[in-house]
Amino acid sequence: MTYRKIFTIGHSTHSFPVFQSLLQQHEVTAVADVRSVPVSRFAPQFNRDMVKRGLHDCGIKYVFLGGELGARSNNPSCYIDGRVRYERLAQTPEFSKGIERLLRGMQTERIAVMCTEQEPLDCHRTILIARVLTERGVTVDHIHGDGSIESHPAAMRRLMAKFDLIEDDLLYTPTERMAMALSRQEQKIAYYNENFRLHKAPSR
Q1: Alpha carbons 113 and 123: distance in angstroms, whole number
Q2: Could you count the other beta carbons within 10 Å of the beta carbon of residue 79?
Q3: pTM of the predicted model, to two decimals?
């Protein structure tokens, strides 16, 4: 089966009209909200009820998938030493359900996966969700705040360059270097929950 394209976007601190124009510029017909906590102290216009109402008013559908695809899992098995691990999160039934909903929805809608961060590389929508989607054969493009589009492969090249892993290396294959870059970025951005930290016995 051939799937259509999926976009990602971060609402950042845009005004709602600017956010709306970014979606309309790329003919988005549905927004999938993947925030675990769909509220924003710095951008209250993107609180769940307000963004849902605003999108409805401009003819864009809204679905909340933060329970399935959010980065702040309540499942202790997704954590190691208090930090969520994307590989484990991706293996949960809830995450798989969320991905399947996107795959079904993209057959009839032009979907943008929405989270908070403006920079795609600083968000799990890119480091986790887009990676899984591309592995399923989906084309993913990231919408930047200025309206420009960055393909997911281009974003991954930029990520590798960020960690000086873009150049050929005798020790590591391109696939291994990509995995290293993803792992390093995950360590920087993955959610930390003190309640899921493994407490070590005090040394004597």
Answers
A1: 11
A2: 21
A3: 0.92
